[in-house]
Amino acid sequence: MNPLVRNLIYRYLAVMAFLLLMVVVSRLLLDRVLSIEQTSSAEANVAGQQRMLLHRISLFGMELDRLEEGPLRVKVRAEVERAIQRMEANHRALIEGDPERTILPLRTDSMRALYYGPTAQIDRDLKATLERARDLLAEHGPSAPAQAQFHDHRADFFLLVNDPLFEVLDRAVSQYARDSAEQIAHLRRYNYLMIGFFIIGLATISFWVFWPVVRRLDRMIHEITEAHARQAEAEKGRRKLSYAVEQAPVSVVITDSQGRIEYVNAKFTEASGYTLDEAIGHNPRILKSDETDRQVHADMWRTITAGRTWQGELKNRRKDGQSFWEHVSISPLRDANGAIVNYIGLKEDISQRKAFEEELREKDRQLSVALASMAGGLFMTDRDLRILVFNDKVEDYLMLPKGLLYPGLSLAEALRVRALRGDYGSGDPEERLAERLAGYRDLTQPMVYEDSLPDGRVIEVVRVPTGDGGVVTAFTDISRRKRAERDLTQAVEMAEQASLAKSEFLSRMSHELRTPMNAILGFSQLLDMNVKEPLTPKQKGWVAQIEKAGQHLLELANDVLDLAKVEAGRISLSLEPIAVDSVIEECRHLVTNQAQAMGLTLTVAVPAGLAVRADRVRLKQVLLNLLSNAVKYNRPNGRVTLAGEPLPDGRLRLSVQDTGLGIPLDHQANIFQPFNRLGAENSAIQGTGIGLAIVKRLVEAMDGRIGFTSTPEIGTTFWIELDVVQAAALAPGDRPTESRTPAAPSVALQGSVLYIEDNPANVNLIQSVFADHPGIALTIATSGDDGLWEAHRLRPDVILSDINLPGMSGYDILKALRADPETRAIPLIAISAAAMPSDIKKGLEAGFQAYLTKPIDVAKLLTVLARILAKTA
Question: Distance between CA atoms of 478 and 456, rounded to whole angstroms?
């Protein structure tokens, strides 16, 4: 018998034995449960009978008092006696046990405590109760006296029912039931536990029984799977070989030992035009052409019949008669005895390669012509720094002897001539040569440099790595270009010097203009602000004209400087997202009073929430200039409209339209030329003719566009276009606000002021300003040294100082005062005609408390002075 079958039989018998054992155990447990249930039921019934018998004794006893002598009385009395006897018998059975009634003796602590315990002694109470019942029964003897002579014992028998024993018996019945239920629950748990063990054991034995079978089956399946896999792999290999031969990129031809074709693949059909059916049985000479030497075929046949492999190139003919080149490799195939049984030929169509070779030869010829015709020199080296190709210009540019270079020459030998000549500097020529060659070996990126030849020529050298370790080097004579660059550099330097001189001139002119303008505007402000000696209306008009003319000159100076900065490209812009709404609102507020004075209606029609990429200050300058022009050159009671329109190309067009006289057609071409007022210079309207030129340059510097349309007698519209960007959320506190000239302080000024100034007109102006403020003690110093001496002597509350002083500038005075502990805390205010934003920024960063520009705004000066004096008080 098979060992596996025998093992399975033994294991099957073991399982059956285990199942039989589990059935027996389960049966025993079930019988035990049934026995306990039967016993518990009998005990509970007997305990219940005790209660009923006691009730019966009480009822029949009470009936004895009522009955006369006779058979019925005897019968009732007998019933009471039997009930007493049965109670005694039941009591003994419950205590001692009764096998006939399947009653066990008292077996639990709870029941023993109930029968014999100190508080519930059923045994004692039952015996006493039955004794009392017998005594009452004895008084009702067989021969009872007449009814009138009986003692009434009904109440005594009734009390038997109400005796505590009655309640204890009820408790006994309940306790029997609880004990029974508890034992049955225990047995059922044991039964469940056995069932669990049965299931676990059955699973374990089943695993034990069937595991060898599973393992054996698994091995069998694995062996079968491996056999199938090996078979499939072999079949796959055969298919791969078949596919490889069939789909090979070369033609495969198999012949017998006589050279008759037995097999060709699809590539053969594609290359020759002969199908498998057309080729089988024929000799490969069907492809032979007259363009291949006969000796080649003879050598091929002689080699393969000798058992060797033959390789070569044949020019064959297709079925359609076209010639093509093939690279052929033919090898003999031998059987187990070594005899040649087949020949296999692998043939690759090399017609395209042959064409490429011919094309390459043509390219080489063309390259040679191109190299020879190049204006510059060129040579190429391989990774070993051997020269591959070159043209004749190389020897000229490197000043090498004619005929030195040739393909295959080491670059070191070619350049050694230059090293020995000293072209690479003084020192050991071999060291200089090694350094130059290292630049070729270590080259990984294109390199461009200039080299000077001994004859004074300058050549530009370009080295480019080829990727395979080689280097292409090209030379170009740049001597003429270098001379042009030097000339251009000199011209640029001269232009920059001229521009610098112009800027310096404009800056000095602005400074010189501001100095007398300081007196003109300052004294005109004092005349207008004089309260003690007020001017007449006519005089006020004269003063207003003076101030108006001065402001015009000041505006001209500012515009000239702004134009100079724009033309020099020195204007700094901060291009960022700018909320259009806020800038337009500021501009509208600034021109509202001017428009109202002319009775103009100012309308803004720009979509809300738009933002453009611009410089905020310069955008405001542009819009303010366009709006001011629209107001100045408008008709009385006309209109000015500022409109906005998003364009499809992502720009925002802002246009300013007026209802003025328009621009004559012959002047429109010159609208953006500086200092050209287009005929308005003969009108009463003031202007410099610079504003639109500055506007155009600012808009273009912000990558925008500007243009206009104008119709004579109808009006003009100027427009600018800027790139729209995503609107940035600006907190109200972040938006710049328009600075306005503060009003003069209403409180009296108190303190000491030192004014350092060398210009008498400016000194006179400041003295006149403080003449109306008796609380100010003014001291004048006309030089920096005098100012420092007065500062040490007086310790003034505030020092006013000019920047451009003879011998010592205002910055030198500031530095000296801050270095001295005694004068370090004195506030210093700069008053200067250097009014560029950079000048103001420089002064504030240096440490001046304030920087006031000339011409002095008297009200602003007094306000700043009041603020500083209030802090030092």
Answer: 11
Side-chain-side CA neighbours of residue 114 (13 Å): 22
**Of 607, 699, 716, nearest to 663 (Cα)?**
716
Q: Whole-angstrom Cα distance, residue 60 to residue 178?
A: 32
Looking at 80-89, 244-253, 501-510, 856-865, which range is the least confident one? 501-510
Would strands 751-756 and 776-781 be described as parallel, antiparallel, or unpaired? parallel
Strands in 466-588 per DSSP E: 471-477, 576-579
Per-residue pLDDT at 668 exceeds 60: yes
User: SS3 of 602, please?
Assistant: strand
Give the C-alpha separation, 239 to 652, whole Å: 71
Distances (CA, A) of 189 to 29, 182, 185, 186, 192: 10, 11, 6, 5, 5
Three-point CA angle 77, 82, 83, nearest 5°: 95
Report helix angle 691-701 to 616-632, nearest 10. 150
Distance of CA 506 to the CA centre of its chain: 52
Scan for tokens 């110093």, then name that residue.
781
Q: Which residues pair with 261 in a beta bridge?
A: 255
By C-alpha distance, which of 659, 690, 660, 663 is closest to 675? 690
- Strand, helix or coil for residue 821: coil
Alpha-carbon distance of 11 to 14, in angstroms, equals 5
Model pLDDT, residue 749:
85
E strand or H helix that includes residue 779: strand 776-781
pLDDT digits (tens, 9 = 90+) for 379-397: 888 888 898 888 877 877 7
Q: d(Cα 704, Cα 701) in Å, to the nearest integer?
A: 7
- Name, in order, each residue with C-beta under 8 angstroms of 557's C-beta and a sequence gap of 6 or more: 509, 510, 513, 514, 517
Instruction: Give the span between the Cα atoms of 226 and 240, in whole angstroms.
Output: 20
How crowded is residue 80: how many other Cβ atoms within 10 Å of its Cβ?
24
pTM: 0.34
Closest to 737 (Cα-Cα) out of 577, 572, 590, 573: 590
Question: Which SS3 state, helix, strand or coil, does residue 458 take?
Answer: strand
Structure tokens, 730: 């600006």
What H or E segment, with its residue span, contains residue 276? helix 276-279
- β-bridge pairing 850-853 and 828-832: parallel
Buried b (16+ CB within 10 A) or exposed e, 454-467: eeebbbbbebbbee
**Residue 873 DSSP class:** -
Continuous segment of H or E residues that includes residue 708: strand 705-711
Rg of the chain, C-alpha, whole Å? 64
3-state secondary structure of 45: helix
Closest by alpha carbon to 633, among 574, 684, 704?
A: 684
The answer to whether 788 touches 812, Cβ cutoff 8 Å, is no
787 is written with which tokens?
């100012």
| 756 close to 511: Cβ distance less than 8 angstroms | no
Tokens standing for 280?
A: 């089988």
pLDDT bin (cut points 50, 70, 90) of residue 684 is very low
Whether the ω angle into residue 284 lies within 30 degrees of 0, i.e. cis, is no
Contact 536, 544 (CB under 8 A): no
Closest CA to 804 of 419, 507, 376, 577: 507
Tokens 């405001």 found at: 620
Q: How far is 792 from 754, CA to CA, in rounded Å?
A: 11
Contacts of 288 (CB under 8 A, 6+ apart): 297, 316, 317
| CA pair distance 253, 281, nearest whole angstrom | 12
Q: What is the 3-state secondary structure (H, E, C) of 513-543?
A: HHHHHHHHHHHHHHHHHCCCCCCCHHHHHHH
C-alpha angle with apex 70: 67 to 76, nearest 5 degrees? Answer: 60
Residue 602's φ and ψ, nearest 5 degrees, are: -105, 120
Q: Is residue 795 within 8 Å of residue 779, measured between CB atoms?
A: no
Beta bridge pairs of residue 632: none
Residue type for 144, please?
A: A
pLDDT digits (tens, 9 = 90+) for 446-483: 888 888 777 778 888 888 888 788 888 888 888 888 88
